[in-house]
């Protein structure tokens, strides 16, 4: 327990909370109001105290420096993903992360790059046919298929087949329905029975494919662990496999969907990235990476990250009592005008300006510290490779964009994105 001097924590008053409830009760609106009280501020849900942390130094303390105090306590996707890495805690989490981490380093990803490029080629061919026909495409569906294809090929060394695609989309719908944070008590529980049936069948199929393949794949890593380590039961292999699929594909596909919506609204940024250098050059790759980074700033993979204060602490001079729910919100931190000039503006150039590298605690679309997303490098790499292929070849003209944004486990466009693909030069 810390003995540092403390000041009174700013807290949303009951009248403001009532106005939020009357206005529809979206969590993002509540947190936006709370953020105005300061970088560390609170509100109450009955007897439950919740603290929102958006300031850079406090973010660092919670996610990187005091992880023994601010811990993950369960996870809303546990009924679907069980004991997989996303939901695991303590020593099991450390063992599971140690096993998988080498696969997601810069060097480890190179093993799977041929699989990523094969999925890129498949998507490019789909778009070539669609552009030639002048058809209206649901590009968000194409991007979800691409992301699923990448992870399926990386798991099994096989392309995504239609039946597996159908089952994974169905399971993903269950994942997408889960809220990031439920401020009301007595919420209706989500029925995961159908989603779990799809997950079980997909896991069985993936293991069968991996066992007959001579190509390297992530499932083979899990199967070797099951043969050598007593902790890796058949159930844990299933949970870990589906964590890699369900948690991995939705976030990448959503980020790509936002990126194409942003480029439709800001076509000059596509031209800027392509003019940065010739195809295959480091300059163009850096500019495309900046497009991805800026998209993730505005629409981070995990927009809200709950933690549980296991003991008393002090954050930015405010006492945090044990038992408090602590919320990190990269979506709000990334839009803080004190941390990011013109925060609502889509300006990828900011990531190539030497004087404006993101300071610690100001940019964390994949989390921060030891529990940061294991697949962050993998996700960014697959996005960059896809964009290097598609951006020069096609201009995406959005005909119908979702009118609303959904703030669930991910922050995503609430509906299909229908667009016409114009081949370069048209």
TrEMBL record:
Cofactor(s) recorded in Swiss-Prot or TrEMBL: heme
Pfam families tied to this protein: p450 (PF00067)
Coiled coil: none
Keywords: Heme, Iron, Metal-binding, Monooxygenase, Oxidoreductase
Keyword Oxidoreductase attached: yes
Keyword Transcription recorded: no
InterPro entries tied to this protein: Cyt_P450, Cyt_P450_CS, Cyt_P450_E_grp-I, Cyt_P450_sf, Cytochrome_P450_monoxygenase
Family according to the record: Belongs to the cytochrome P450 family.
This protein's name: Cytochrome P450
